[in-house]
Amino acid sequence: MAGPVTVGKTDHWGSRFGFIMAAVGSSVGLGNLWRFPFTAGENGGSAFILIYLFSVLIFGLPVLMAEYALGRHGQRSAIATLRKITTDEKKPKAWIGMGWLGAIASLLLFSFYIVISGWVFDYIPQSFSGAFANFSSEAELLNASIGQAVSEINSQITTVHLSSACAFVSDGIITQVAVMVDGQETFRDITVGDVSGCRFAETTSNKLEVFAYTAVFLALNVFILARGVRGGIERAAEILMPAFFIMLLGIVVYACVTGDLGSAASFLLTPDFTKVSFNTVLAAVGQAFFSLSVGSCVMFTYGAYLTRETSIPKNACLVAGADTFVALIAGFAIFPIVFAFGLDEAGGPGLLFVTLPIAFGQMPTFIGAIFFTLALFAAFTSAISLLEVGVSWLEDQKAIGRVKGAIGLGLVMLLFATAYIFRGDLIDHADFLSGTVMLPLGGALIGIFAGWIVPRHILETELGTGPHLKLVLFLLRFIIPAFIFAILITGIYAKFAG
Ligand code: PFF
Q: Does a structural domain hold residue 179?
């Protein structure tokens, strides 16, 4: 694994605001809007959220600080920084492997992240065209016309499982759908939620269209990365993130006013610990790492562009705070609607794409379009940080310029994305492997490396001295590795043991 210890980065963030927007932009993304609500929904809601908040504070934040600190110390891509530290400090070269693990995790994440971004993209023109506005009338029409047909020809009511109903809903053939409630099959009329669910299924099954949107999203990523740190990543984040925040607040206010806020609040705020298992804890820790963008060395890379004047502890708290705020607020945007329309809160990855369009259908069409546009902005600023790990490595380790590096990596990622478009179930596996296993594993390794291997004076220079450093070091050395390994082993065992 020996290799050249290269020269440091010359490109830096232009301003503190620019760095914060880029860092918050990396953290705030589909993890907050898409992954957090459905993971919370599948894991019982509030108890999960409580464990999630602890995970952010105890596991996520210290690792985030360590990544920024080591990144700024190294002034290189993640792998090159680890090579420099192990060479300078005469430490085992095996630690460079941690950078490789991070790079693989971020590219794996990126490969499916862009497909979900493609779905978001696809929903923008659909919102504009007013497709969501007809959900309730479509459902009513279906139920009424079928009721009439039944009385006219006295035929039997057709009953179909919801999963296979989608194609028929639009043809008006289905009268009732079967759903599982508490393990029991129940029959009921078609609801607005069914029609919305079918719309989502139709969207993802239109493979050519999803491919086109994914490819355009990817091309924009490549374009911005090719423009560099200050002129590309920072500029994009400075424009996209403030716009995102303003719009999100508007949507939340609307959801709380018009949705079932009471049920949502009790689901999100009254912990039911009977629903907690090792899997829940693993999911919460994984989500904390995913949402904060830590554990995959992405923040090493962003830290490398930090100027000396920036306070890492302060900014890390700010980034983690903003990210957590957005995740919670996304919960308050989505669950009132879920409960108001009797949707399944454990509906899985489709939750965002099924619930919100129902609400948007009842607002002026531009609102839904703006929301999905902003979700796309958030996804965009996260995706560029994931691909930057690879681009930055090619740049300073292989002397491949940013333009060539971004295009080359982009093409490879397109191949992976195509596989997910055609085999949607692969997304779940890639998400579990990268988001739930590799990120916490990377986090534990970063904890051990920063806490035990890196000389203390490096962390003192980067993080300052004082009680906060003692606390961060304690968490990095003892708590993070011990807990994460225990949770990982038990959680993975529990998953595969059923
Ligand atoms: N934090 C991003 C989100 O919440 O969508 C996703 C992400 C970006 C994960 C960068 C990991 C990462 F390194």
A: no
The amino acid at residue 351 is: L
Which amino acid residue places its CA nearest to atom 11 of ligand 1? 293
Is residue 124 in a domain? yes
**Pocket lining: 75 vs ligand 1, CB cutoff 6 Å:** no
**Phi, psi dihedral angles at 185 (to 5 degrees):** -80, 125
**Could you tell me if residue 170 is inside a domain?**
no
Taking the centre of ligand 1 as the mean of its atom positions, its distance from the CA of residue 241, in whole angstroms, is 15
| Radius of gyration of the CA atoms of the chain, in A | 23
What are the CB-based long-range contacts (under 8 Å, 24+) for 427-434? 427/112, 427/115, 427/116, 427/349, 428/349, 430/108, 430/109, 430/111, 430/112, 431/35, 431/112, 432/495, 433/108, 434/105, 434/108, 434/109, 434/296
pLDDT digits (tens, 9 = 90+) for 446-466: 999 999 999 999 999 999 999
- What is the DSSP-derived secondary structure letter of residue 68? H
Ordered DSSP codes for 439-475: HHHHHHHHHHIIIIIS-HHHHHHHH-SSHHHHHHHHI
Contact 22, 234 (CB under 8 A): yes
373-407 pLDDT per residue, tens: 989 999 999 999 999 999 988 988 788 899 999 99
Q: Which structural domain range is residue 61 located in?
A: 16-134+196-496
Is the shortest distance between the CB of 46 and ligand 1 below 6 Å? Answer: no
Instruction: Report CA torsion sign: 378, 384, 387, 388.
Output: negative
The CATH number of the domain where 437 resides is what?
1.20.1740.10
Give the mutation target among 109, 111, 439 for probing the ligand 1 site: most ligand atoms within 8 A of CB. 109
Task: Please report whether residue 144 resides in a domain.
Answer: no
> Could you tell me the pTM of the whole model?
0.88
Q: How many domains does the chain have?
A: 1
DSSP, residue by residue, 142-188: HHHHHHHHHHHH-PPPPEEEHHHHHHHHHHT---EEEEEETTEEEEE
